[in-house]
Design goal:
It contains six helices and seven strands; from the N terminus they run ααβαββαββααββ. By secondary structure, the protein is an alpha+beta fold. The chain has a five-stranded mixed sheet. A two-stranded antiparallel ribbon has the order 1-3. A hairpin with a 2-residue loop joins strand 6 and strand 7. Bound molecules: adenosine-5'-diphosphate. This is histidine kinase. It comes from Cryptosporangium phraense.
Amino acid sequence: ESSLLALLSGVAAHVGQFLSRRRADDLALELTRTRDDFLALVGHELRTPLTSIVSHTELLLTDGELSGENRLLLESVDRNANALRAIVTDLLDLAGLESGDISLDLGPVDLSEIVSASTAALAPVAEANDVKIQVDAPRVLSLRGDPVRLRQLADELIANAVKYSPDGGDVGVRLEREGDLAALTVTDGGLGIPEDERPRVFQRFFRSSAGTARGISGTGLGLPLARAIVERHGGTIQVQHANPGTSMTVSLPLDGPGSSPGK
Ligand code: ADP
């Protein structure tokens, strides 16, 4: 009977474990939902007043009679309000893409064109950081996707590669077709991400110690947003160490979401 007792207490222990795990999972899910609702609510409430601040400031800046000092003050208001608005937009985009509230506007997209537009737009920032962007892409690489979101994705990855290369260097952007997939790889020779922190870079608000120690500013929303865009397209995104920097690889099914067996 002692073995029966052992068996019973084993069962009881497992049931207890199961129940507490269930409870912890439910709680985690509920907390995640509460957090997402909260962020979405705050985002909506902030967006309207911010839009009004930005548009009124920009109107005031057109006044030719402004004193130099007041112009500087207004320009600072404008910059900060725009920065705040960008954060709110990222928060709302992230919440909407993850929940499915934002739908993709799917159509034929030339990813080569998107990558070269993104690179061209970021060239001034790269130049200011003494970074050279090298692009290696086919003339055309067509897939089914949302052009606005894919541009946002390319911007995010290339901007990070530039931003986290504080001492200059090369950023490589490679685009190629691999069977039914488009593979986009952005490699830099920058700060790199410590190995134990690498799995966390796609969590919202996470910022690696390597960047914060150098005083590089950011919100920790860019990579979660990048991942949400990739996943909504049925693709995958991975971070790798690229001695000495970082390499981000995105794989997207050419046929668009719903076509990859993994989804
Ligand atoms: P942030 O606004 O802080 O740049 P991201 O979500 O884009 O937020 O990235 C999260 C963190 O991952 C960054 O704070 C940075 O520490 C790290 N990171 C992202 N891209 C790179 C990169 N190319 N090189 C080094 N660190 C990077």
